[in-house]
Amino acid sequence: MSRIVVYTDGSTKENPGLGAYGFVAVDKDEVIYRSGEFVNMMTNNQAELLATISAIEWFIKKYDSSNLLVIKTDSKYCYSGFNVWMEKWIKKDWKRADGKDVANIELWKKLLVYKEKYSNIKFEWIKGHSGNKFNDMVDEMCKKIWKKKEKKYEQ
Fold first, then answer.
1. Phi/psi zone of residue 152: left (φ > 0), alpha (ψ -120 to 50 degrees), beta?
2. Could you report the per-residue pLDDT of 124-150, keeping only the tens digit for each?
3. In Å, what is the CA distance from 54 to each residue of 9, 34, 51, 130?
4. b/e string for 104-126 if b means 16 or more Cβ within 10 A?
5. In what order do the strands lie in the sheet with 152-154?
6. Contact 112, 86 (CB under 8 A)
7. Global pTM value
8. Contact, 50 vs 145, CB < 8 A?
9. CATH classification at residue 137
10. Considering the domain boundaries, does residue 24 fall inside one?
11. Which of these, 18, 44, 61, 142, has the minimum number of CB atoms within 10 Å of its CB?
12. Domain count, the chain
């Protein structure tokens, strides 16, 4: 069994605005894959969600369910949504505590499918810009992608 850790990030020039999302996959403290993509118009939260979805989709294609995927995100929105809020939203027909519709519902519903189907996906929150080399790496990658308007980046 492998324990693959992915560091995800989303970045926009303005909110909303030009942006990018991506992830860095790590196995035993070695980078094994990087991927990112430019998007013309999105919010920071959409970028963070797309980074998470793309990391999960990459993992599912490459590994079977005996392997563990640990998603490390500096987005409290993604972390809390996946681990805490999602169950409450479902019970309230995708409404927030204040009765308003959940933002980015289609992206959250896609994550729900993965959450229900794959019990080997775990989320961990990490503090952004705190010196974690892989978190810093994905942050810099996303900024470079939207600055260059690079449609797709893989390595």
1. beta
2. 999 988 889 999 999 999 999 988 876
3. 11, 11, 5, 24
4. beebbebbbebbeeeebbebeee
5. 121-125, 68-73, 3-12, 17-27, 30-42, 152-154
6. yes
7. 0.93
8. no
9. 3.30.420.10
10. yes
11. 61
12. 1
